[in-house]
Specification:
The complex is a heterodimer of chains A (98) and B (499). Chain A has helices at residues 6-15, 22-40, 42-45, 74-78, and strands at 63-64, 84-85, 88-92. With 98 residues, chain A is mainly α. In chain A, strands 2-3 form a two-stranded antiparallel ribbon. The two termini of chain A are 42 Å apart. By secondary structure, chain B is of the alpha+beta class. Chain B folds into 3 domains: 5-310, no CATH class; 322-431, no CATH class; 439-495, Arc Repressor Mutant, subunit A (Orthogonal Bundle), CATH 1.10.10. In chain B, strands 3-6-7-10-1-11-12-13-14 form a 9-stranded mixed sheet. A 3-stranded antiparallel sheet of chain B has the order 5-4-15, with no helix packed on it. Classes of the chains: A mainly alpha (98), B alpha+beta (499). Chains A and B meet through β1, α4 and β3 of A and β2, α2, β8 and β9 of B. β1 of chain A pairs parallel with β2 of chain B, so a sheet runs across the interface.
Amino acid sequence: MAAISRDDVAHLAKLARIEMLPEELDHLATELGQILGAVARVQEVATSNIAPTSHPLSMSNVFRDDVVKPSLTNEEALSGAPAKVDDRFKVPQILGEE
Amino acid sequence: MTLDYQAATEKYEPTLGLEVHVELNTNSKMFCSCATEFGAEPNTQTCPVCLGLPGALPVVNGKAIESTILIGLALNCSIAPYSRFARKNYFYPDMPKNFQTSQYDEPICVDGYLDVEITTEEGTKVFRVEIERVHMEEDTGKSLHVGGSTGRIHGAEYSLLDYNRAGIPLVEIVTKIIPGTGKYAPQVARAYVTQLRDILRSLGVSDVKMEQGSLRCDANVSLAPIGSGKLGTRSETKNVNSLRSVERALTGEIERQANRLEAGERIIQETRHFLEESGLTRPGRSKEQAEDYRYFPEPDLVPVTPDAKWIEELRAKLPENPADRRKRLQAEWGVPDSEMGSLVNAELVDVVEETIKLGAEPTRARTWWLGEISRVANEREVAPTSLISTRSVAEIISLITSGELTDKLARQVVEGVINGEGSPKDVIEKRGLKVVSDGSALMAAIEAAISAQPDTAERVRGGNIPAAGALIGAVMKATGGAADAAKVRELLLKHLGQG
């Protein structure tokens, strides 16, 4: 049974930049543990003669020719951006002061 | 007391590790069909795939896979029969997807090597640098940090992103740890990057311009007391943008680490940034642990499984190793190391070889490309090859060899061709550049020179042959360099009774 600790959840929340309340951490630690447990049941059917797969279809070497096609215009590319400056995407401060 | 570099390497043994990122020169990006042109207007080479818009699906650029296999083969790697892409997850706005498509535990090429040659006061030394892996990934966007005092990411008020570069195919070449280089560590690192650059250029897979960032090197180094048999804690220096900087950055970092260890302090495992002006490094952001990237197989891409036939076809396409080729040409041309070095540094080996193949006399081919043509190219800050074709240079040199042009006239022909006045023949015709070897025309100039310098002429008559130089010079000047100097000398000496 996969266990997930409160610290694991806090760490993942930090990596995912999601702010969480202490009670949410407790709640999610329990809930994520149950989800992992449910998914872990797959291991019961996975046997050594079945290769793991990362894609639903067993295909390989799907390539495209190295040919340029038109891109979006600058306006189109930035049309969904919450903020823009000088034809660039504007994002909030990334790191604080050292 | 602080240790200088020599003292540092007498006490501590450096161990290197080098990661080189090379942008491939494909026309389109790695997973979409956007153009890869350098210097385009911001955010004009993007699409739903490289902007990470919902529902967009990537498709691998076959040419990029081919280039990566070629690189692996040139570095004596095994090509994996099965490899996969993986998502490297991280929160940083240089990738709008919040992950970089990379490879994790299943790279395309593994276990190669490159023999690196350096010149030392103890003679030529060869170090085998073992290659751990060559894998495919995609480049990130370019950030511009605005506000704050330094223009750096720390303390910036906000950042601006241009995603033209996001998704350009990037190949990462990682060495195994390189032990036993001792005080030569920085030199070995520089030679490795240089040889690698030459190989990549010969393969034609990248522009390999360090100053434009199409070739970048991260240099890892750790120190341990000599003979301890241990490995110290390493630092990783980024932002190393020239071959010279590779050597400087490592020299500085070895000194810094040695002095910390001397002072009883610990080395922190961290990323450091090279500062071009001072040659020093400063700490960067502390590295997230590998597991924090939460790598997992990319579900939107299928595996790459090159068959033996494809690999052998690519192997058959490999050009001669640049280091071997250089040695072969140097022997064929019979030139000293210094001149060969100049040709290599000026990237003129190929054009000189081609010029010679087109019939030019070898010594002249080298001299013209390295001399006059490079001089004009430097003045105009362009590549010598953009000024004049190898065919024109070969033609001009043939005319010198056959005596139809003097060096001085040839320089005018080269100038004319460079200025767009047409082919060498056109320039010769339009400017009337013909060697004067007609005896009567030369005799007039010779007699004029003798009457202008009667004393000199008298000395030559008296047997002082070297004095004739001044008279020959005067004739050459009078004919604007168009006279055949050997012919002038012959006629002059005969005229003064010394022929």
